[in-house]
Amino acid sequence: MPNPVRESGDRSDPAAPPPSRARRALLKRLADVVSLPASRVNAFERAMTADLLVEMLREAHPDERARVAARVAPLSEIPNSLVRLMLRDEVAIARLLIDDCTSLTDADLVSCAMETGLEHREVIAERKGLSEVVAEIVAGDHEPSVLMALLNNMTARLSQPTIEIMVAVTQGAPELIPQLLRRPELRPSGAYIMFWWSDAEARRAILQRFAVSREVLQEAVDDIFSQAAGENWSDPLTRKALQFIERRQRNRAAVEKSPYDSLEDAIDAAGREGLDRLLVQEIAYLSGLKPPTCAKVLGDRGGEPIAVLCKATGLPKTAVQTLWTALKRPLQTPDGQVDPDLERVLVTYDMLAVDRAQTVLRYWNWALSSALTPSLIKAIRDGDAGALDEYSVPQRAAMLALGDDFRS
Questions:
Q1: Which residue from 21, 31, 167, 387 could staple onto 71, CB 3.0 to 4.6 Å apart?
Q2: Angle CA 99–102–107, to nearest 5
Q3: 368 CB burial (10 A radius; 0-12, 13-18, 19+)
Q4: With the C-alpha atoms ordered 149, 154, 157, 162, is the resulting torsion angle positive or negative?
Q5: What are phi and psi of 159, to 5 degrees?
Q6: Are 291 and 281 in contact (CB under 8 A)?
Q7: d(Cα 77, Cα 74) in Å, to the nearest integer?
Q8: 50 phi and psi, to 5 degrees?
Q9: Nearest to 400 by CA among 185, 146, 145, 195
Q10: Residue 340 Cα to chain centre, angstroms
Q11: Which of 248 and 314 is assigned the larger pLDDT?
Q12: CA-CA distance, 363 to 293, in Å (whole number)?
């Protein structure tokens, strides 16, 4: 978009005549009048002066515009026409107001963000005390540099839609992940999904911070389990919620239908014979998971989800190594040391408590499978990121985490 103050040509041309001393003095006087207190100038006089000042600034030299911007920035009230012009000026001049003018409204900043460019949005993202509304608009173009500025601005207030934008963008801009993990607004739902494309250090941080216990929930709804059982689990919403909360991870009913005597038996078979689609399904059912979730866990390149699966289902640490072998991953380096990837996954197993591992695993299962609907699967396959607002939090998580799997 053309800069409105540049419509009459480039006034920075070195061949242009030097600025007039009279013009400089006049600009200063007009700025002084605009800056007078209400006891000295009424609103109409201030507006009239501002209109004249705006017309002069359209043709003024950048140094002159910067002087006026610096003069009016401390004011508690600035005529809107003057604000609009200066906020749309080149970024060095607009910054004088964006950084220091406390009288700018959210409407001023939103308008500036929408009608200027990347550099202006970066400066707005750095403004102290930025509101949720402005932050959401500034983040709306998904520009990593703007999002980084927002994340580094600890005085900015970030709404959950803004955080969800950031979580989605981290897939292609992993440099945002460490900063996002430091924000107090990040919730487990975003962290658990961001886990899938995070590096090892970020994954450890996510598990340490967000793998929370469900003990409070379990105590709060303990009597509801018997009520739901008395109703034969007929209400699907209640059943789904209680499945997330309950203490038991494994599906006991699945053992009766399985060709394997237990989850351990299925894991041992995987170690002997390798994994195929049917065996992955059996491990999923015995673990209380849906097959897409189990496939995502076992197919993860980093391997940490395997540790989460084994700890959550009460499997011993040796089961991690068995699955590692079944996936044809090396147990040792050529010099006989434990493979560093396997060692990292074993450390993950050790650091997790069972209940916390279950929280992570159940959220993945809830988000990656229970939330899937035909329309959501179509949106995932079509790569329809614009449809995210139409879906719930777990459904949006599924779109982010499973997008590549469904399109492959």
A1: 31
A2: 90
A3: buried
A4: positive
A5: -80, 165
A6: yes
A7: 9
A8: -65, -40
A9: 195
A10: 30
A11: 314
A12: 10
What are residue 338's phi and psi, to 5 degrees? -65, 135
pLDDT in tens, 91-147: 999 999 999 898 899 999 999 999 999 999 999 999 999 999 999 999 999 999 999
Q: What is the rounded distance in angstroms from the CA atom of residue 120 to the CA atom of residue 175? A: 21
Q: Which two tokens mark 262?
A: 């237990």
Query: Is the pTM for the entire model greater than 0.85?
Result: no
Give long-range contacts, CB 8 A cutoff, 24+ apart: 391-400. 393/189, 393/367, 394/189, 394/366, 394/367, 394/370, 395/367, 395/371, 396/164, 397/189, 397/192, 397/193, 397/367, 397/368, 397/371, 398/367, 398/368, 398/369, 398/371, 398/372, 400/167, 400/168, 400/171, 400/193
d(CA 19, CA 22): 9
Structure tokens at 337: 């040391």
- 161 and 136 Cβ atoms separated by less than 8 Å: yes
Half-sphere exposure of 372 toward its Cβ, with a 13 Å CA cutoff?
Answer: 20
Q: Which residue has the tokens 């494994």?
A: 250
Res 19: pLDDT:
62
258: number of Cβ within 10 Å: 18
Residue type, 93: I
332: three-class secondary structure by DSSP: strand
Q: For position 22, what pLDDT does the model report?
A: 83
The answer to whether residues 89 and 65 touch, using CB atoms and an 8 Å cutoff, is: yes
CA–CA dist 97, 41 (Å, integer): 22
